[in-house]
Amino acid sequence: MASILHIDSSPRGDRSKSRKLAKEFIVAWQDLHPDDAIAYRDLRQTPVPHVTEDWIAAAFTPPKALTPEMAELLKFSDELVDEFLAADRCVFSVPMYNFSIPSNFKAYIDQVVRVGRTFTEEDGQVKGLANGKKVLFITSRGVEYGAGSPYEGWDCQEPALRYAFQFMGVTDLQFIHANGLDMGDEAQKRGLDEAQSKIQELVNSW
Ligand SMILES: Cc1cc2nc3c(=O)[nH]c(=O)nc-3n(C[C@H](O)[C@H](O)[C@H](O)COP(=O)(O)O)c2cc1C
C-alpha cells in the first residue's frame, strides 16, 4: 500500500482544467490501487502563507534553539513538510501563470524547501532529503510551447518545478502538460486529449 499526496493549486474551482485532469489521474489510479491512501490538499481552500522575515529566521534556527514563538511560526510549514515526506508519490496540479507557476504553489514550495527537513548542507554541498518518492505534475496552459510555436522556449514553469523538487532530492519527476487550453475549442480539445492519453498511459506504468 502506497501513500499518495494529491495537491490542487488552481484558484479556480469547477472550471479548472488542471484539477479535472489530476482528478482523472487519481480516480483511475484508485481503480487500480484501491488500497493506496490518498491525502488531499487544496491550496484554494487552504492558502499557504508567504514566508516572512521572522519565518526565515525561525527556519534557519537549529531545532534545539527554537523559541516557542519560532516553533509556532513553523507549525504549518512542519505540517506541510511531514505530509510531503510521508508520501511515496505526489500528484500536483499546477496551472501556468505568467510563464511560471501561480504564487500559491510557489508559496507551498517556499514552505516545504526547509533546511534540515527536506535538504541539508554538508561541506558546502546541498543534499536533498526527500529521496525515493515519485512526483507527477499535471499542468494546464493557455497557449502552446512546442517547436515552432510563438512561445517556444518561454516555459519557465517546468524548470521552476523541476529544480525546486530536484533540490529536495526528488529524482523521479514526471510532467503531463495540457497545452493550448485558451486557444479555441479545437486546440483545447487537442490539448486535453493529449494530456488524457498520457494520464492513461502513466496510470498503467507509474
Ligand atoms: C493570471 C493568469 C496568468 C496566465 N498566464 C499564462 C501564461 O503565461 N501562459 C499560458 O500558457 N497560459 C497562461 N494562463 C492561462 C492558464 O494557464 C490556463 O487558462 C489554464 O487552463 C489555467 O488552469 P486551470 O484551468 O486549472 O485554472 C494564465 C491564466 C491566468 C488566470
Structural write-up:
This protein is α/β, with parallel strands linked by helices. It has a single domain, classed as Flavodoxin domain (Rossmann fold, 3-Layer(aba) Sandwich), CATH 3.40.50.360. The chain contains 7 helices and 7 strands, in the order E-H-E-H-H-H-E-H-E-E-E-H-E-H. The chain has helices at 17-32, 53-59, 68-73, 75-86, 103-112, 157-167, 185-205, and strands at 3-8, 37-42, 89-95, 119-122, 125-128, 134-140, 172-178. Strands 2-1-3-6-7 form a 5-stranded parallel sheet, with helices on both faces. Strands 4-5 form a two-stranded antiparallel sheet. Helix 1 (17-32) runs parallel beside helix 7. The longest helix has 21 residues, at 185-205. The protein is globular and about 60 Å long. It starts with a strand and ends with a helix. FMN binds at residues 10, 16-18, 96-99. It comes from Halotia branconii CENA392. Residues 3-201 form the Flavodoxin-like fold domain.
Topology:
Layout: E1 3-8, H1 17-32, E2 37-42, H2 53-59, H3 68-73, H4 75-86, E3 89-95, H5 103-112, E4 119-122, E5 125-128, E6 134-140, H6 157-167, E7 172-178, H7 185-205
Parallel strand pairs: 1-2, 1-3, 3-6, 6-7
Antiparallel strand pairs: 4-5
InterPro entries: Flavodoxin_fold (IPR003680), Flavoprotein-like_sf (IPR029039), FMN-dep_NADH:Q_OxRdtase_AzoR1 (IPR050104), NADH:quinone_OxRdtase_FMN_depd (IPR023048)
Keywords: Flavoprotein, FMN, NAD, Oxidoreductase
Catalytic activity: N,N-dimethyl-1,4-phenylenediamine + anthranilate + 2 NAD(+) = 2-(4-dimethylaminophenyl)diazenylbenzoate + 2 NADH + 2 H(+); 2 a quinone + NADH + H(+) = 2 a 1,4-benzosemiquinone + NAD(+)
